[in-house]
């Protein structure tokens, strides 16, 4: 396995810092605003999602809820 060049290492460090900053931002937002999701909720974002293309896009503008069917006794 080849070692990274200085430029590659610098880029990797910049990406790591950006990811850590975003994680902190998400945590702070959650602490301030909470969540409307319950423990059974799941959010999946497709690789071609407009959420990944536009930071101003809101999840509520492109998402929908899927609910589990209730089990019925037969």
Describe the structure.
With 74 residues, the chain is mostly helical. The protein has one domain (6-62). The chain is 49% helix and 0% strand. The chain is built from three helices and no strands. It has helices at residues 6-33, 50-53, 59-62. The chain is elongated, with a radius of gyration of 19 Å. The termini are far apart. The model has no long low-confidence stretch (mean pLDDT 81).
Biggest sheet descriptor: none
State the helicity in percent bands. Answer: 40-55%
Strand content: under 5%
Q: What class would the helix/strand composition place it in?
A: mainly alpha
Flag low-confidence runs: none
The overall pLDDT average reads 81
Tell me the span between the first and last alpha carbons: 59 Å
The total beta strand count reads 0
Looking at how many chains there are and whether they match, the oligomeric state comes to single chain
User: How many structural units, i.e. domains?
Assistant: 1
Q: Treating each run of at least 4 consecutive H or I residues as one helix, how many helices? A: 3
Element order: H for helix, E for strand? HHH
Radius of gyration, in Å, reads: 19 Å
Question: What overall geometry do the principal axes of the alpha carbons give?
Answer: elongated
């Amino acid at each position: 396995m080849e070692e990274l060049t200085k430029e590659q290492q610098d880029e990797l460090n910049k990406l790591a810092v950006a990811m850590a900053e975003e994680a902190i931002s998400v945590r702070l937002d959650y602490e301030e605003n909470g969540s409307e999701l319950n423990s059974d909720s799941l959010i999946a974002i497709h690789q071609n999602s407009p959420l990944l293309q536009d930071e101003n896009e809101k999840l509520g503008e492109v998402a929908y809820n899927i609910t589990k069917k209730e089990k019925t006794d037969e």
